[in-house]
Design brief:
Number of strands of chain B: 10
Strand content of chain B: 5-15%
CATH topology of the largest domain in chain A: Glutaredoxin
Radius of gyration of chain A: 18 Å
Helix content of chain B: 25-40%
Shape of chain B: globular
Number of domains of chain A: 2
Order of helices and strands of chain B: HHHHEHHEHEHEHHEEHEHEHHEHHHE
Oligomer: heterodimer
CATH class of the largest domain in chain B: Alpha Beta
Shape of chain A: elongated
Helix content of chain A: 40-55%
Largest sheet of chain B: 4 strands, parallel
CATH topology of the largest domain in chain B: Rossmann fold
Largest sheet of chain A: 5 strands, mixed
CATH superfamily of the largest domain in chain A: Glutaredoxin
CATH class of the largest domain in chain A: Alpha Beta
Structural class of chain A: alpha+beta
Order of helices and strands of chain A: HHHHHEHHEEEEH
Strand order of the largest sheet of chain B: 3-2-1-4
Largest interface: A-B, 53 and 63 residues
Number of helices of chain A: 8
Chain lengths: 167, 452
């Protein structure tokens, strides 16, 4: 059980005051509070790395909407993680231009280096590997994103060096 | 480390770009740094806003945009001026919303990223003009979550513009008020569809909505809402500053569509990249600028503007890259960024990759899309393994037809059908080579959906 899971098991999910303020600030940008739902999920995710089930009613309460509305949104969007992810998330572009630039070799090299496939996290909790829609880096494919940064082109032989920079 | 961070880049140097001929990119610097407010204003930035808000009526803006024939650069090619003229406004109608679609996710497309990262003030200026024309109260820039650098650049520009009085109350002393917030997404290609984008903006699942009512009648929170692509808004300042005739003349004899376009090339070519060229520039010129194909390979086929456009052949390369010409060839200009396929690459595999993308990104709202796309992928995978059965290719014909226009709420399924249908037309032998089994022997079991 990781720290987040332990806290939830003991205390229920508590949205940090700072996060609550950030969500309320976002809410004021829109005509109705439901609109801040995606941003609220992202705020919670930034703190915990993912969005545990117990966070859903907590977010719903801040926004004054039903938990089912928040849950529906939380399960729709691919960048909202509903299970724990590694310290770094690798998003590998699998769309057409990268595909034509041998993305499958890059994917296989990543899998071999990390010992995991898409949707999985390394045992040491360092990396999670996911596919992603066209990253808009087609002129430098195959491309991938690690956390907030996009890299490209990434040759299979570059993978070990590239990953080394992430602890 | 040999891997470099990605930065958006234009292939034309500053020396090649002039205000009169490159309205979208002439201010961009060779080092790719963001154009800040001072530099933007120093290069005539916000001049169109000052002029138009103080001296022209909203109807004047719409008339000029219509006459210039600025066609939607997000891929559909609908006249922006026409769209703006259809927005409900005036009298007792509440002021609504102006939304910039910056959810760039079309496979093979990397153009809006450049404008967002390097010249966000041009977008903001275009949006102010759009808001004035449409009587919009508030604007949103709907930016895909993965464009982190663009988010920073846009937020910085919004803050600068607000501090300098270009956003907020009484813009440029005109009495017009308008402000913009940045809204970042959390993935899903479908958010780029106009009505799904509105659902997502409202904090809901990004399911599309039936039209009518059109967003201009009832969009975000039931208010009149205008949605345009980044590049479309970025055309407005120059159109308003220099007029419709000037804009039309940019493309001259090349096309009936006006203006320039951010064109690009990706795939195995010598020099991938982006260029601002007159709309109607032939594809052959673009390919030439890209230095032709790498390793001396021959061109097999190309997609003119993203994954949801139809394949074209080498014989179509001399065609003008504009909405009508490419449309007449049975494809679509789409985003205008070419995806190039060489003679060694399998169209069947590429189509499988595209349909996997569309199957995964379907929002699941409409049956043909939700069920038809995974089914299509299963068949394509079987053909790719050489384990297809007799009737599979004909079944793909039928699926492509069933995914076509008019059978679903939005254009996601028709977009998926277009590369499939055109590949079946031009490269049918590649599909037929995968047929090795008699009917109902290879994959007679029901095909499980949701596992693609």
């Amino acid at each position: 059980m990781n720290d987040t899971a332990r806290t939830i098991a003991r205390d229920g999910f508590v949205i940090e005051p700072e996060d609550r303020r950030a969500i309320e600030h976002e809410r004021d940008h829109y005509e109705q509070p439901q609109a801040a739902c995606i941003e609220a999920l992202k705020i919670v995710q930034r703190r915990h790395g993912w969005v545990p089930d117990a966070a859903i009613p907590a977010i719903a309460e801040v926004l004054g909407v039903g938990p089912a509305d928040v849950e529906g949104v939380a399960t729709f969007y691919s960048l909202i993680f509903r299970q724990p992810v590694g310290r770094h998330v690798i998003l590998v572009c699998d769309s057409s231009s990268c595909f034509l630039n041998d993305y499958e070799e890059l994917r296989d090299a990543l899998s071999a280096e990390l010992g995991i496939g898409f949707g999985q996290t390394t045992a040491d909790g360092r990396f999670t590997l996911l596919p992603v829609c066209c990253l808009g880096a087609c002129d430098r494919g195959p491309a991938l994103m690690i956390d907030d940064c996009t890299y490209g082109p990434v040759a299979p032989g570059d993978v070990a060096d590239l990953l080394e920079g992430f602890s | 480390m040999s891997v470099t961070r990605y930065h958006s880049q234009l292939r034309q140097s500053a020396a090649e770009r002039r205000a009169e001929t490159h309205p979208l990119t002439w201010r961009l610097r060779d080092d790719g740094a963001r154009i800040g407010l001072d530099e933007y204003v120093g290069k005539d930035g916000y001049a169109a806003v000052r002029e138009v808000l103080n001296r022209q009526s909203p109807d004047d803006v719409i008339a000029t945009m219509k006459e210039a024939n600025v066609r939607g650069r997000g891929g559909a090619g609908f006249s922006a001026g026409m769209k703006w003229s259809l927005t409900m406004k005036g009298g007792s109608i509440p002021r609504g919303y102006l939304v910039c679609n910056a959810d760039e996710m079309e496979p093979g497309t990397f153009k809006d990223r450049l404008l967002l990262e390097q010249q966000p003030h041009l977008l903001i200026e275009g949006m102010i003009l759009g808001a004035y024309a449409n009587h919009s109260r508030y604007g949103y820039i709907f930016l895909r979550g993965e464009y982190v650098e663009a988010a920073r650049a846009v937020q910085q520009a919004l803050d600068e513009a607000r501090a300098a009085g270009w956003l907020g109350d009484d813009i440029a002393g005109s009495g017009f008020d308008f402000d913009i917030a940045l809204h970042t997404g959390a993935g899903r290609y479908i958010c780029g569809e106009e009505t799904a984008l509105i659902s997502s903006l409202e904090g809901k699942r990004a399911n599309p909505r039936a039209k009518p009512p059109f967003p201009g009648q009832s969009g975000a929170w039931g208010k009149p809402t205008v949605v345009n692509n980044v590049e479309t808004f970025c055309n407005a300042p120059a159109v308003m500053a220099h007029g419709a005739k000037w804009y039309q003349d940019l493309s001259g004899e090349l096309s009936n569509d006006g203006g320039t376009k951010l064109f690009g090339v990706s795939g195995k070519v010598e020099r991938t990249g982006l260029w601002e060229l007159p709309i109607g520039t032939p594809a052959s010129e673009l390919l030439e600028r890209a230095g032709g194909l790498r390793d001396g390979r021959a061109l097999k086929t190309w997609l003119p503007g993203g994954g949801s456009t139809g394949f074209l052949l080498p014989e179509h390369l001399d065609s003008a890259l504009d909405f009508d010409t490419i449309g007449k060839l049975g494809s679509r200009l789409g985003t205008g960024l070419l995806t190039v396929v060489n003679e060694d690459q399998s169209v069947l595999s590429l189509v499988r990759n595209l349909e996997q993308f569309f199957a995964r990104e379907s929002c699941g709202w409409c049956t043909p899309c939700r069920d038809g796309l995974p089914w299509t992928v299963k068949i394509l995978q079987a053909l790719e393994r050489g384990e297809g059965e007799h009737g599979d290719v004909e079944l793909l014909d039928k699926l492509a037809d069933d995914l076509g226009p008019g059978k679903t709420f939005c254009a996601h399924a028709p977009g998926a059908a277009m590369p499939l249908q055109s590949a079946l037309k031009y490269f049918r032998d590649e599909f037929e080579r995968g047929v090795t089994h008699p009917p109902r022997t290879a994959h007679a079991d029901p095909i499980p959906v949701g596992q693609v």
